Amino acid sequence: MVVVFAVILAALVLFATEPVPIDITAIGIMVALMVLEPWTRVSPAEGVSGFASSATVTVLAMFILSYGVQRTGAVQILGRKIAAFTKDDENRQLGATIGVVGSISGFINNTAAVAILMPMVTDLAHEGKTSPSKLLLPLSYASMFGGTLTLIGTSTNILASDLAAQLGAQNPEAFPGLHAFSMFEFTKLGVIVSVVGAAYLMTVGRWLTPARIPVREDLTEEFGLEEYLTEATVTADSPLVGRTVADALDDTEFDVDLVQLIREGQTFVEPLGPKEIQAGDIFALRTDRETLVGLIDAEGLRLLPDVSVDEDELESGNADQSLVEVVIAPRSSLVGETLASANFRDRYDATVLALRRGPEYIRKRMDHAELQVGDTLLVQATPDSISRLNVNRDFIVAQEIERPDYRESKIPLAIGIVGAVVAVAALDVLPIMVSALTGALVMVLTGVLKPPEVYDAVEWDVIFLLAGVIPLGIAMQQTGAADLIADLLVLSADFMPPIAVLGLFYIVTAMLTNIVSNNASVVLMIPVAAEAAAQLDANAFAFVLAVTFAASTAFMTPVGYQTNLFVYGPGGYKFTDYVRVGTPLQMLFAVVTTAGIAAIWGV
Fold this sequence. Notes:
GO molecular function, one term: monoatomic cation transmembrane transporter activity
Oligomer: single chain
Largest sheet: 5 strands, antiparallel
Strand content: 5-15%
Keywords: Membrane, Repeat, Transmembrane, Transmembrane helix, Transport
Strand order of the largest sheet: 3-2-4-1-5
Membrane topology: Multi-pass membrane protein
Distance between the termini: 29 Å
Subcellular location: Membrane
Pfam families: CitMHS, TrkA_C
Number of strands: 10
């Protein structure tokens, strides 16, 4: 037990601080448990059993099904209809955002639902003259409680179902009635928390959610770029004449970025690096005025005080260029890199004009700032480059981008396949794993997805995370670590009724989930909850369900759930915004979930 607790402590620290990605931490846990087999009692076969777990395979299949729906453009069409309905009414915008993402999240992975809907919601805010901050946090929260509607709403539900089935099969006497969840087994509770959550977000939550990003007229105004976009001309005696743009930018010690090059009335954008600088060239520069003065003195440039960059042209775009906001996605290969080390300009044929991290704008030496999940980049690029960014899994383009390759003719097929998967699993004709895998195969056979897209659809880090943490639950069971933690929590039953102990499990799991991965908290807490229920002679299913719902709804920190990180940069949020808006909702859910479980299933 001491060894297992040491592994758990190390895992919690690594999950919370993320010196390496959480999936790598999970693989490290798996390896450590197998290497320390004499103490952890996890054999090599048990150590890799997570890869063969029905939960892991089901989550993999659900990623494919979700991506199939995404590739048809069905959600984008829905977004356009919603925009026509809501217009500039903030109540309608908020209600539509909560209602749509909450409903969709019950049937496709809720993380995917937020990634798909975020551009729609951002555009909805901009077109309706509403701060995006007022809609994006509710988008994240609604996706979480929407995910509690069905078994397939989140990977957490699927993992919890698998763990419950294993515990019930291994020890039916200690855990009578503990079984795998059916498709709609907890839907009535999910509906209750969804209604309560929606009511909170529409009333108290709306008042608490800040408008961090002011209603903007254009992107240059939103990012505060008016005084940072300036034009200067190259003088005849400038040392820059004859050099390439790339060499000139590499050698300068100033924080400056070349947005456009104007020569003889013709405007050039990326790629600018190979172009040779000539006398009379006009540079459109992203810099601050202090740096610009030094640059002019040092490099032989002359400021054009009466000429400014055409910001309207930048904003609206033309055949050559457009401005878009691009968010660094979770699991992006650019996390930990800088714009310079990633060679962003040449790699993506795009220029980053500004970088926003939460509410803060990073302008000084922006190219050398390490990128983080949720960072928002203001990017100027050609339509082709923006299209490539839009399909790149490293980014989420936070505005609706037209994609001519949507397979709209396949919309009925995609929705029908997902509906059939749900129906077959709900009627118990096939296990959810078999049903989901069959649906994924049919997606390919019917042309909804192309074979190579199947591999692109899967978020492999989540698969490795699941496979890596599942053996930790085995170690807790086999060494008695789960029993010991359960014993400590059961002590509270000496002065609290069973329903209060149930609520305690919800709160402990919620606190843990707001710090570490939701899947990791489920693996840690479900064995403990089942053991505690057995010692209290209580309903083990009720305790497992409390843990599942708590792990699926983490509102209080940006790192508590992936969807919170998705909206962190685009919403311009501070850490305290999650605490202020999410804490009352978390406590409300603790009461509602506990009372709902007690009323429906009994404690």
